[in-house]
Here is the input.
Amino acid sequence: MSAEEAVGRIESGMTVGIGGWGSRRKPMALVRALLRSDVRDLTVVSYGGPDVGLLAAAGKIRKLVTAFATLDSIPLEPHFRAARERADFELVELDEAMFLWGLTAAVHRLPFLPIRAGLGSDVMTVNPLLRTVVSPYEDGEELVAVPALRLDVALVHLNRADAQGNGQYLGPDPYFDDLFCEAAEQAYLSCERVVSASGFLAAAGPQTLLVGRHAVAGVIETPHGAHFTSCAPDYGRDEAFQRAYAKAAADPAAWQAFTRRFLAGDEDTYQAAVAAYAKEGEDV
Amino acid sequence: MTVTRAEYCVLACAEAWRGDGEVLAAPMGVIPRLGARLARLTFAPELLLTDGEALLTGTDDETVEGWLPYRRHLGLVMGGKRHVMMGASQLDPYGNQNISCVGDWKRPRRQLLGVRGAPVNTLNNPTSYWVPRHSPRVFVERVDMVCGVGYDRAAAAGPAATRFHRIPRVVTDLAVLDFETPGRTMRVRSLHPGVSAERVREATGFPLAVADGVPATREPTAEELRLIREVIDPAGLREREVRP
Here is the structure.
């Protein structure tokens, strides 16, 4: 299916999980399709990177569930930062491991999972709905009960997939994309290349088959679809472009120009503008 | 050649991992990373180190000896076989740390990183801190948001919180600090050569214990200095993180 079709199944007000991590293998083509849609009031669940930044800049987020937002090589995500300083959206700020436990609970259809993380920290203060649970065994430990992070929709990007939705990662880290897919009612998987399943094991071992078709509602072929985040081994992060993004994000006039140049058209227009930019090798 | 302040800092960071055994040294920041490598090349060869992403690297820093993607890394944190050295935008007398935001959390004056893994780190494995600029802006009476849990907050949260909680060290460009006092409040453990107790007190936003005759941070051996300058950091990245 196309990115537009996938995004067409997302309604305003839904809870959308976004795979990847920071500025790494984010489903950026799907995020760009979301930017072009009129969907809004989203609850976004993400180990945040420029996905969160772009959606925040476009005013699409009503509530954000995350442990951080970063561009990795640039520590602070500028749009996330500005949106927070304007109090543009509600924030559920969780620890990285609490976030993992919340997804894991949703995958296993559990209401919560216990964890030590969070106790004593202000994560408990800024999220007054968080509760603790006491071990029924002799240790009697009181732990945090992380609620399940159930998702209406998950968006993830992998290196390869077949048309049925079996997805393969070829880089060093799967991140948490399988959990996002399994925690969601519907998951949409974009990939660098749609291949035939018969090619999977020629590329790498069976443990790289991260996502199963039973957990995927649609496959979208989006070459360079994680740009400007990294998608090892197909490509690394586009550091020059990311620097230009961060620089533009810091200034409203520059951001307008950036939006006009890169985000006003469809995905093909974006990729063509990026290629032209790379060739020029100059600042936006 | 005289030892630079940055080199004392590398050495002091390395010392944080001494005696930890076969655990992952997880350094955040240039100087802690150099320190962890120095420790492994000298007195702590059993330490595990990553390439900063998903791979565990051998003592030559190139050979891959294992796989540690984020989810296994989080498992390792909760299993405790790790000693992390994090940064801190704010630190208080009990070791509560903030990297999330400055000001009111609901509408921060300055949004920073977010809590990241500070809560899980501090409750599960030893967590030290590295502060490249010791100043009253970092060392504050109260942090704006508790991300890394300090001794008072862990105690108040109960036995599940204190069970594996430990803050072995705070290393700064001026001194090495710890919490080995009866009240579990910060004290100076050693002053880097050339730094006076007065200077550290002035750079700290709360009353700080500095015992009379507090020792100086130890001198590097000739071999340690050679490793820092010729093997670990020939490009001199350390001098960019700490002012001379």
Observations:
- Residues 13 and 25 of chain A are 25 Å apart (CA to CA).
- The longest helix of chain A spans residues 267-280.
- The two ends of chain A are 32 Å apart (CA to CA).
